[in-house]
Write a structure and sequence with these properties.
Elements (H helix, E strand, L loop, with lengths): L5 H10 L15 H4 L9 H7 L13 H12 L3
Length: 78
């Protein structure tokens, strides 16, 4: 969401025991592709957005209470 710092949100969710994580790296910045000459700046939108994306918990055993807890914690970030 606009105005929410990803790193602060990550820390706040983790402090509440919510397993948020950072997963997304633009493909062209992975070592395999960097070794083949691809560099930053090739996909500026993907690179910019990668700095803001946060992965929220999702797992098979997640129940409605888990969803409500995560949603409440995220709502409290704004």
């Amino acid at each position: 969401a606009d105005g929410i710092d990803r790193d602060r949100a990550f820390a706040a969710l983790r402090a509440q025991g919510i397993g948020a994580n950072v997963h997304y790296t633009p493909v062209h910045l992975l070592k395999f592709y960097r070794d083949r000459g691809l560099r930053s700046g090739l996909c500026p939108v993907a690179e910019r957005e990668a700095e803001h994306i946060l992965t929220l918990p999702m797992f098979v055993g997640m129940d409605e209470g888990d969803v409500a807890r995560v949603a409440g914690a995220v709502a409290g970030l704004s």
